[in-house]
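So, can you check this one?
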Amino acid sequence: MNTYHIMNKYGIMESRTIHEGMNLNDPMDLILLIAQRYESICNELNIEPDARWTTMMDMEKAAQSLELDVDALRRLWEFDNSDFIHDIGGIKRHIDRLTGEIGGCFLPRCS
């Protein structure tokens, strides 16, 4: 495992762990990292997370619908917890799982 360090918006250094062989320029690797982080935060808060594959499918469809590129996905993964949960929660709340479109005028902060 490798540790990736980022500076959050408050100027505090945070760490993110990535597994050997993962590529931060590959959208599907970033989506997996986002789903794992969402699951981890939910577990810390004693909230039952959606299945990892559900979060990954939601994120893949949201990335297509909102035209989120690798940089936007990386920004999302690097966000502090409050911005991260805002975006993931908003996507999960506003995604139409039949069409993959994001409704309700929701626009993630990472876009």
Q: What stands out?
A: The chain has one domain: 22-111. DSSP finds four helices and two strands in the chain.
